[in-house]
Amino acid sequence: MNAPAGLDFAGIPERIQSEVQRAIQRSIKGVEYFSTSGPTLGSTPKDVLHSRGTMSLYHYRPMSDEIYRIPILIVMATTNRGYILDLVPGQSFIEFLLKRGYDVYMLDWSAPRPEEKSLRMEDYVLDFIPDCIRRVQQDSGEQDVSVIGYCFGGVLSLLYGSIHKDGPMKNLICFTTPIDFREMKLFSNFSDRRYFDVDRLVDSVGNVPPEMILSSFEMLRPASRAASQIQLWENIWNDEFVKSYRMFDRWATDTLPLAGEYFRTITKDLMWDNKLFNDTMSVGGRAAKLEDIKVPFLHAVAEHDHIVPYEAAKHLIAKIGSEDKEEVMLKGGHVSLVAGANAVKRLWPKLDSWLGKRST
Amino acid sequence: MTDKSNDPIAVWQKMVGEMEKGFNSFANQAMSSPEFSQAVNRAGGVAAGAQKQLGELMEKYLVSMNLPSREQVIGLAERLQSIEGQIGEIKSMLSQMAASSGVSQGSDAALRPPRTKRPPSEGGEQT
């Protein structure tokens, strides 16, 4: 009998042996998986400079002998925890920045408490961020501050920067930041004003529950959770794969609730009326136009971003008023752009070369 | 080692990947329709209403059991939060006073590196 074309009979015993070994490893490692808690995340040494309700301001301890004059404030997205930027040593964006000589602060969020359901966009843009900037100035002794905003943290940073056009923000970097919310097609459809009664939802639940936020993210790729669990089982013998899976899975499912009033504004002003894109956005009665941002600006976007598609982010660079501005598109998705092995090779060095010369 | 195109495990993995892509794409198309939005939001509205009613019922039950109501617990939390805030402010003021009087705080403040770093191209260094 002839072998079917292309089938390598000689390699079959070796392949069977390898699969049997992996099957044994899977059983052993599978038990380990359920009996251990995974790597410790966000362990770069830091001090809590200030904490107020949902808001926390961290200062990371410097890791180099001399640091750049201008400190960095990272503004995290309000839906997720900041430790995505500080996973484990060797895969931590924060650690990278510290070793490259930056003085790093982070505005991170915890779940808003029930009584914080009335927090508005004004509280985030006109109170929390300016308060943190003041504290960074005070702590560092420097007037200038560079701001890095990730995802919706980028939107908040844009709103802050367009309203506080006279400073003290010295440089602005946004990672995967949407401004044209019509182009976030599925989110736009989920929140279709004809069917989505945001007032009823917020008035009923107060803060928008994290399960709702998480399921709306997961609905963007409904098969991916099941597929990733199949991949986990196949690769459970591989310690590096499991470590990486656990880090990202823990972060992705550690979604935060959103303050009710804040969510109402996001839905009405951004999702429905697309005000940031249309230059009609205002916060607390103060106009927020992107053309008023004049500081050096870098926007990093991901080629395969399924949460913030490029169409939703691409007009930002044109709308920003700065003369010194650059958009960089890198391979990867919404999260792998900023964290993990790809980010180590792509985004981080790019950011360092751009920001270093603007931080003296 | 066998060629990946002949390896049944690699073929299986590829198939799972393709199925994932295909299902995601199909589901995304289905979810783009107004009918989907209508159905999801109708279900969501019912769930939110039910959650509110259940919350109110639980509140009444707790009061009847002579247990602290949610409002009271939130009141306590607010007072704690206010105390935390005030402690933070006092700590911050003390740090400022210590810094302005030149007293070492024994923390990293006195050990901060100088802000003299130049980018590699300017200083000629390679980090």
Explained architecture:
The complex is a heterodimer of chains A (360) and B (127). With 360 residues, chain A is of the alpha/beta class. Chain A contains 14 helices and 10 strands. The mean pLDDT of chain A is 87. Chain B has 127 residues and is an all-alpha fold. Helices cover 71% and strands 0% of the residues of chain B. Chain B has 4 helices and no strands. The relative contact order of chain B is 0.03. The mean pLDDT of chain B is 72. Classes of the chains: A alpha/beta (360), B mainly alpha (127). Chains A and B meet through helix 1, strand 1, helix 3, helix 5 and helix 6 of A and helix 1, helix 2, helix 3 and helix 4 of B.
| Strand element count of chain A | 10
Helix content of chain A: 40-55%
**Biggest interface pair, counts:** A-B, 62 and 56 residues
SS field, number of helical segments of chain B? 4
Unreliable stretches covering 5 or more consecutive residues of chain A: none
Assembly type: heterodimer
